[in-house]
Amino acid sequence: MSAVIIVLIILVVLVFIALIKTIQVIPQASAAIVERFGRYTRTLNAGLNIVVPFIDSIRNRIDLREQVVPFPPQPVITQDNLVVNIDTVIYYQVTDARAATYEVASYIQAIEQLTVTTLRNIIGGMDLERTLTSREEINAALRGVLDEATGKWGIRVNRVELKAIEPPTSIQDSMEKQMRAERDKRAAILTAEGTRQSAILTAEGEKQSAILRAEGEAKAAALKAEGEAQAVRTVFEAIHAGDPDQKLLSYQYLQMLPKIAEGDANKLWIVPSEIGDALKGLSGAFGNVGGGTPGFNVKDIPSARRDEPTVD
Questions:
Q1: Structure letter (DSSP) for residue 27
Q2: DSSP assignment string, 169-204
Q3: What is the pLDDT of residues 229-253, one digit of tens each?
Q4: What pairing do the DSSP bridges indicate for beta strands 30-36 and 39-44?
Q5: How confident is the model over 61-109, as pLDDT tens digits?
Q6: What does each C-alpha distance from 219 to 49, 205, 214, 223, 224 come to in angstroms?
Q7: How confident is the model at residue 312 (pLDDT cuts 50, 70, 90)?
Q8: Of 38, 121, 148, 176, which residue is the least packed, with the fewest Cβ within 10 Å?
Q9: Beta bridge partners of 160
Q10: Residue 287: pLDDT band with limits 50, 70, 90
Q11: pTM higher than 0.70, yes or no?
């Protein structure tokens, strides 16, 4: 009786194990390779799948999502014989689970080695300067070669990126010095241009100021001359309207004599010939009025002689 129970228990366990092996649940964005007696039978897609227990076996489960694989820095020689270390990142996706399982032993390792060899071929035809400035070109060339080579492995390379391009330390120092010199040169050029522009603007300002000042002085002189002309014209019109006689003119001559002699620098002055005539007219006027002035004679004045200079 106990032996029968043991057998039944064993059968139940075997049935339970068989059920577990029969029902296979594949997650979304995944695939499984089924082999029957070591031979590929089919590919299980996402969802609930039924297999023959103890006959069919799951060989490999593959993630169909896009994968990101960084590769360590690889030394590469440029066209000008400089060694640079390049880090790469590959974005790939498995499109055929069967080919990825049976066409290549390890597609990750195969992609890495293919990337290194292709990268050396591409960088070998470029100098250092072009290598540092042509990342997009290198990425496109590398992606084209990898996508073509990995197509038969059931893998699609979506993108290739160069993480870093590190030249030798001596080259980095030289490049840093060159860039520093370029920055200093640009700074000096900008400073010189600023000084030149400032000088130009200052000169333009001084020029405009001088022009405006000259225009102002010219207008002021014109207004002053016009005012003096107007004053002379007014005086002349007033004199002409008053119709002065010889007596008044003689009196005005006498009033102007002290003004002519004013100032310490007036050591020599010339008496016009008209003053003598004015004095004669004025003497006659005084003589007519008061019967002559005692002690006053025109001939007694030396300056009354025509055009004779008198020294003070």
A1: P
A2: HHHHHHHHHHHHHHHHHHHHHHHHHHHHHHHHHHHH
A3: 887 777 767 766 766 666 666 666 6
A4: antiparallel
A5: 999 999 999 988 888 888 888 888 998 999 999 999 999 999 988 889 9
A6: 108, 21, 8, 6, 8
A7: very low
A8: 38
A9: 90
A10: low
A11: no
Q: What's at 36, amino acid-wise?
A: R
Under DSSP, is residue 164 helix (H, G, I), strand (E, B) or coil? Answer: strand
> Which of 191, 179, 75, 91 has its CA nearest to residue 142?
91
For residue 281, which of 247, 243, 253 has the smallest C-alpha distance? Answer: 247
Cα atoms found within 13 Å of the Cα of residue 40, Cβ hemisphere only: 13
| DSSP helix/strand/coil, 155 | strand
Rg, C-alpha atoms of the chain: 60
Angle between helices 107-123 and 135-150 in degrees, nearest 10: 140
Structure tokens at 102: 């049976």
Contact, 98 vs 44, CB < 8 A? Answer: no
From the number of C-beta atoms within 10 Å of its C-beta (0-12, 13-18, 19+), residue 195 rates as exposed
- E strand segments, the chain: 23-26, 30-36, 39-44, 47-50, 56-63, 67-77, 83-94, 155-166, 268-270, 309-311
| CA–CA gap between residue 138 and residue 140 (Å, rounded) | 6
Residue with tokens 């089924």: 34
C-alpha 44/C-alpha 281 separation (Å) is 148
Between the CA of residue 27 and those of 31, 59, 62, what are the distances in Å?
8, 16, 10
Q: Please tell me whether residue 29 adopts helix, strand or coil conformation.
A: coil
Q: What is the pLDDT of residues 11-45, one digit of tens each?
A: 888 878 878 888 888 999 899 999 998 899 999 99
Q: How far apart are CA 141 and CA 143, in angstroms?
A: 6
**What tokens were used for 1?**
């009786």
- How far CA 136 is from CA of 112, 142, 213, in Å, comes to 20, 10, 63
